[in-house]
Amino acid sequence: MTKIAPAFGVPPTLRQLLSGTALYGGSVYRDLYCILGNTWSDLIVDDRDGLIESVGGSRTMAEILRGIWTTSARMLDNKRGHSRLDLRVLHTNVLCSWTELRRLLDQRPAIDIDFDWQHGLPCPLDELRWRMAHHLLMMGEQSAVGEVVGVCWAYARRPGEGQAEILAAATGAELDEGAYSPRPIPGGEDLVDVLAQWRERGQQAILEAVAQMRGSIREAVAEAIQERPKPMTVLAALRKQAAEAERPAPEPEGPGLVVLASVSHLPGSAKDGESKTTSASNPRIEFAPIAGKRLPLVPVPDLARVQRVLAGEFPDAAQIITSILASLAGRPYVRLPPLLLRGGPGTGKSRLARRLGEELGLAVTVYGAASVADGSFIGTSRQWSTGRACVPLQAVKRHGFASVLVVVDEISRAGTRLDNGRLTDGILALAEPETARAYHDPYLECATDLSGVSYIATANSTEGLDPALLSRFRVVDMPVPTLASLPVLARGLVAELRRERGLDDRWLPDLTPGELDLVAEHWRGGSVRTLQALCECALDGRHAGPAN
């Protein structure tokens, strides 16, 4: 479906949207305009009385429909293209209408809703509500995740078109707890095909479960015929395969570290170093692949090259970068001493921490500490249903390296109550080298060697932080970006925007001198976030054309 689709064509049904069909016209406003006109024709002729009658006499409901209709019509009438501000206004209007629509529909007796659904008589207003939730999810609205997942399960339980695809999407959403990657659809006006990501994850899990079931069937058949005589050639081949399977994997070249010695003390049958494809999940199966294995440590790269790259992206922090990298000189592998980057909002602390890890070759895990009100960072016991290993150990298992970087973002905003533990208390043990070499993980209930993990924390201020924490972290003040660094900072921000959008410099070139001068009129130094917004406005202005 293209953007030149007629205003009143045949829009896809909600079931078709959930199973992967594209939006009518490729946009939210075209799809809403079309479905509203097809369902409530009184909107086309502006018959308010007829519209009120068609929604059961509710003037409020009629005004909600007219509001959505008007918003979609304005977007449709805009022939010059839509700026990011236009799309944000659309997002806000659809969200407000959807919220009010939910409130009104939820006032009905639950027995009426269930009766209509069980007998295949869904209310058009319910269909519109669920459709709008689907659209909001594509626009990145987190509050719509729960409703869309519930709708997917409801449609997956009813036989019909696309049932397998909807079931896979619902399964994937549950497995990933509603998480998704914000990858925009090419040419989709910042829309994200969340259901496609969930569907892919669910299909993968279903295929793994089928493979596991087939493997169980094969084992049962093999046990049933094991007493039959086999030719010696077959026995010899089986012995050779068994010997190869038991042969230990080659040790990685270069520096390495055994993070987890064994999982044999845990319930289950998985062996150390064994990877199983199974739908079951327990600590032994989860961590067996790295148990007893010598995981590689990232060797120190060319520090001069790293310094040049980072100083080019953060010119005001060149001295800080040189000082941080100096601690790695002469080391066989990358392990940074605990750092705390302190600076005002928008000075680029988090971005510098992430880019530092990337250029050093470390896998980076960013842990948002703002509003964290417990000590789950250090792991939780298996006696709880939500038990999990500590964050550094999860990062090691996920990336397969003993040296990784954990960025604890906004550590000064973590909760300070003691009833569920404090984040800052847990980091004390992990940031101490001697303790980290034999850290007792509460989930695995054994010692783990996390001495190869590096930690960088960020904070607007160190006021109120535990002195014991500050004694373990080297506090580095992040300088405020200056106007003189504008060209370099803008070049780095545009490059990052290119990576996010999947474009190259031919489609999204750097800001021109004229555009830089325009940005400089509104940014005289300070927050990089403000500079990023101004750069995006300048880039979007290329497509808007000259002002009338």
Description of the molecule:
By secondary structure, the protein is an alpha/beta fold. Helices cover 48% and strands 7% of the residues. The protein is built from 22 helices and nine strands. The strands form three sheets. A five-stranded parallel sheet has the order 4-5-8-3-9, sandwiched between helices. A two-stranded antiparallel sheet has the order 1-2. α2 runs antiparallel to α7 (124-138), α5 (84-105) packs antiparallel against α7 (124-138) and α21 crosses α22 (528-544). The chain starts with 13 loop residues before the first helix and ends with a helix. The relative contact order is 0.07. Residues 1-5 have low confidence and may be disordered.
Quickly describe the structure:
The protein is of the alpha/beta class. The protein contains 22 helices and nine strands.
What descriptive keywords fit this protein?
single chain; 548 residues; alpha/beta; 5-stranded parallel β-sheet; two-stranded antiparallel sheet; 9 strands; 48% helix; globular; disordered N terminus; AAA+ ATPase domain-containing protein; ATPase_AAA_core; AAA+_ATPase; Lon_Prtase
